[in-house]
Amino acid sequence: MRRVEILSLAVVAWASLALVCAPAWAAAVELVMVEEKLCPWCAQWNQEVGVIYEKTEEGRRAPLRRVDIHSAEINNLTLKSRAHYTPTFILMQNGEEVGRIEGYPGEDFFWGFLGNLLEKVPVDASAQ
Predict the structure, then answer these.
(1) Where in the chain are the domains?
(2) Phi and psi, residue 6, nearest 5°
(3) What are phi and psi of 67, to 5 degrees?
C-alpha cells in the first residue's frame, strides 16, 4: 500500500472510533477550574480543597479539569459568558455550561455552592 492510502485508512479508523465513543464523551460531567499563575485564591483553593477534591463524591461526579484563563483552550469551551475572574469553577455537562462559581468563597461555602450546581445534573449523567 502507498503511504497516502495507509494515512487515509488511519484517518477513517480514527473518525469511526470517535463516532462510536462520542456518546460516552458527550455524557461526561466535569468541573472546569479557570485559573492563572500567581492567583492567591487559586492557591488557597488548592490547599484547602484541591488536595482532596478527587477523593470526594463531588470529585467523582464531576472530575476536575484545569484551564488557564489566558490559554487558547478556554476558547474551546461552550460557556454562557466569558470567565473574568480566577478562580472560576464551571460545571459542564455534554460540553456545555450548567453553572459556575466565580471566585473562591472559602472551603465551607465552596462545597455548598458546588452541591447546588450538582443538583442540576442527574446522578446517572455524571456516571463515567
Answers:
(1) 25-126
(2) -65, -45
(3) -135, 130
CA distance 30 to 86: 18
- For residue range 41-94, list pLDDT tens digits in order: 999 999 999 999 999 999 999 999 999 999 999 999 999 999 999 999 999 999
Cell numbers describing residue 105: 468563597
What Cα–Cα distance (Å) separates residue 62 from each residue in 12, 28, 67, 89, 110? 32, 8, 15, 11, 14
C-alpha cell, 49: 480543597
Q: What is the rounded CA–CA span in Å between residue 68 and residue 87? A: 10
CATH hierarchy code of domain 25-126: 3.40.30.10
Max Cα separation, the chain? 62
| pTM for the structure as a whole | 0.76
